[in-house]
Design brief:
By secondary structure, this protein is mainly alpha-helical. The protein has three domains: about 80 residues; about 120 residues, Orthogonal Bundle (hpI Integrase, Chain A); about 70 residues, no CATH class. It contains 13 helices and three strands. It has a three-stranded antiparallel β-sheet, with no helix packed on it. About 20% of the residues are buried. Pfam families: Phage_integrase. InterPro entries: DNA_brk_join_enz, Integrase-like_cat_sf, Integrase_catalytic, Tyrosine_recombinase_XerCD. This is Tyrosine-type recombinase/integrase. Belongs to the 'phage' integrase family. Keywords: DNA integration, DNA recombination, DNA-binding.
Length: about 325
């Protein structure tokens, strides 16, 4: 059986299990094109190694390609499409996972100000568009993909509520937002209606000038320019600079910090934060929370208050 047909069967199998599998599909299709779509049994270990290695040294991309192809060939062998796996036997040590970066309030302001550099003669709307996206990501803690998949009908300005559909785990959730963010979204919506609405109220909330959805890769490349303009550099000890995704981590951390400072029961509120972020369980949320100096100070003050109360009762 030719490689593309086996890939089709594999993707159908994965999606029958409830997986979206969009990024792995793109990778597998690229592998198929590069190989020339031969019979799957004609794929050699050299072809696989060259594809996995890419242009540089082993990286997270190397590991990702290796894992996807491992799953693919496990499926192919179990269905008798292939006799053996041509994947490398020796797997290099994966690179250290990047530590989530928590932006300060001052850094967030610099990012917002830096959106002004995106202004182009033919696309003057981009700075305001990107500013709205940054504020939405911070104000709601949404994933980038979730924000880019929003449609006009998903944003209810009257109820200050966003409907997040087709999430990472194929669930729907509601995300409330505050008055200040509501005003920003209202301004964006007014500007948005000046552009084509190909699908009416189901048209993309974030769009290009011709009404098409804003692409993830485009959003990331623009953020790299913004981050450089805002002079936010690679932290000491890290190999890569802060990411746009780190705004989601920042949103969760700042919310938790505000709970500590306002004297609320953080442990009781954590499950609510988990639901708000769209996590399947609280363990996923806990991975987003890192002990920053501000959070450590707030937690220490809370413990000091508790200790004084215990001494008084004793």
């Amino acid at each position: 059986m030719i490689l593309s047909s086996v890939i089709d069967h594999y993707l159908s199998h994965k999606r029958s299990l409830g997986m979206r599998f969009e990024t792995p599909e793109r990778m597998l299709r690229r592998f198929c094109r590069g190989a020339g779509d031969p019979e799957i049994t004609a794929i050699s270990s050299v072809m696989v190694s060259e594809f996995i290695r890419g242009r540089g040294t082993p990286s997270s991309t190397w590991i990702f390609r290796y894992r996807i192809l491992t799953g693919f060939y496990r499926f192919a062998i179990s269905r008798d499409y292939a006799d053996c796996s041509p994947l490398p036997v020796t797997v290099p040590k994966p690179p250290r996972q990047q530590t989530p970066y928590i932006y300060s309030t001052e850094e967030l302001c610099r990012l917002l100000e830096a959106t002004s550099i995106l202004g182009l003669r033919r696309r003057p709307e981009i700075p305001a568009l990107y500013r709205t996206l940054l504020l939405l990501l911070y104000g709601t803690g949404m994933r980038i993909g979730e924000a880019l998949r929003l449609t006009l009908q998903d944003v209810d300005l009257a109820e200050n509520l966003i409907t997040v559909r087709d999430t990472k785990f194929f669930k729907m959730r509601y995300v409330p937002f505050g008055t200040r963010l509501g005003k920003e979204l209202a301004g964006h919506l007014q500007r948005r209606r000046c552009f084509p609405m190909i699908q009416g109220e189901r048209s993309p909330f974030f769009t290009t000038h011709n009404g098409q959805p804003w692409r993830y890769t485009r959003v990331i490349s623009l953020f790299q320019r913004i981050r450089e303009e805002a002079e936010i550099t690679c932290p000491i000890g890290e190999l890569r600079p802060p990411r746009l995704h780190d705004i989601r981590h920042t949103s969760a951390m700042h919310r938790m910090l505000s709970w500590y400072r306002s004297g609320q029961d953080v442990q009781q509120l954590l499950p609510r934060l988990s639901t708000y972020l769209g996590h399947v369980d609280i363990r996923s949320t806990q991975r987003y929370l890192h002990m920053t100096p501000e959070l450590l100070e707030a937690a220490s003050q809370r413990y000091a208050q508790y200790a004084r109360g215990a001494d008084y009762e004793g």
